[in-house]
C-alpha cells in the first residue's frame, strides 16, 4: 500500500468484483452512514428495496420451519463447540445486519474508496473498544459481490476473511458432547 493509500481509520480491504458492484456498495455505505449519524429509521422493507435481488439473496431469510431447524441444531450442539469458530452459522439475516451496523456498531462509517482498479477499502472509525467487530461490515461487502481479503480492525491487520462454516438445514450435530452425570459431593 502506498503512503497515500494508508487508511486513517479502521477498514475492511476487499477485491473489487465489478465497477457497478463497487458503485452500489459506495451508495449503500453513504445511505447507512447518513441514517446512522442522523438516527433515521428506515424500515427493513425500505432497505431491502435498495438492494438488487442478487444482493439481497446473500442474506438469510428463514421461514418458521428453517428457523426451528436452526434452533434445534444450535441447542443440540455441545456448548464448547457451539461457541467455537468451527461452529457452522447461517448467513447473516438482513435485519440483524442492519441492526448490527445502525444500532449496535459503536463506530462511524466513513467511506468506501478504491486503492487501485482491483482493491478498495470500507473505512470506519470506532468510538472505542469493543465496538462490535467487523463481521457485519464484511458481510455487507460480500453481499455486493466483493471478496474480503483483510481488515485493519484497530488491533492490527488481519489477512483473509474469518468466516465460520456455513450452516445448511440438512446438517446434523456431529457428536455428543460430555454429559453431566450429576454432582459429586
Terminal Cα separation, in Å? 62 Å
| Percentage of residues in strands | 15-25%
Uncertain segments are 177-185
Gyration radius from CA atoms, angstroms: 19 Å
Which structural class do you get from the secondary structure elements? alpha+beta
* Elements, N to C (H/E): EHHHHHHEEHEE
Shape: globular
Secondary structure: number of strands: 5
Structure description:
This protein has 185 residues and is α+β, with helices and mostly antiparallel strands. It has seven helices and five strands, in the order E-H-H-H-H-H-H-E-E-H-E-E. The chain has helices at residues 19-38, 44-48, 53-56, 64-76, 79-82, 94-104, 135-143, and strands at 10-15, 107-114, 119-126, 147-152, 157-159. Strands 2-3-1-4-5 form a five-stranded antiparallel β-sheet. Strand 4 (147-152) and strand 5 form a beta hairpin. The longest helix is centred in the N-terminal third of the chain and has 20 residues, at 19-38. It is globular and about 45 Å long. The protein starts with 9 loop residues before the first strand and ends in a 26-residue tail after the last strand. Mean pLDDT is 89; it is low at 177-185.
Amino acid at each position: 500500500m502506498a503512503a497515500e493509500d494508508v487508511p486513517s481509520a479502521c477498514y475492511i480491504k476487499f477485491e473489487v468484483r465489478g465497477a457497478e458492484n463497487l458503485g452500489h456498495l459506495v451508495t449503500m455505505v453513504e445511505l447507512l452512514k447518513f441514517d446512522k449519524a442522523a438516527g433515521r429509521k428506515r424500515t427493513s422493507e425500505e432497505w431491502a428495496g435498495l438492494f438488487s435481488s442478487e444482493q439481497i439473496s446473500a442474506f438469510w431469510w428463514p421461514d418458521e420451519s428453517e428457523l426451528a431447524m436452526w434452533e434445534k441444531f444450535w441447542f443440540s450442539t455441545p456448548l464448547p463447540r457451539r461457541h467455537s469458530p468451527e461452529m457452522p452459522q447461517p448467513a447473516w439475516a438482513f435485519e440483524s445486519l442492519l441492526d448490527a451496523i445502525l444500532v449496535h456498531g459503536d463506530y462511524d462509517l466513513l467511506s468506501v474508496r478504491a486503492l487501485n482498479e482491483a482493491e478498495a477499502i470500507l473505512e470506519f472509525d470506532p468510538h472505542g473498544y469493543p465496538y462490535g467487530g467487523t463481521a457485519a461490515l464484511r458481510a455487507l461487502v460480500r453481499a455486493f459481490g466483493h471478496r474480503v481479503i483483510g481488515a485493519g480492525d484497530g488491533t492490527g491487520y488481519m489477512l483473509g476473511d474469518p468466516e465460520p462454516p456455513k450452516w445448511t438445514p440438512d446438517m446434523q450435530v456431529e457428536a455428543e458432547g460430555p454429559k453431566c452425570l450429576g454432582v459429586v459431593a
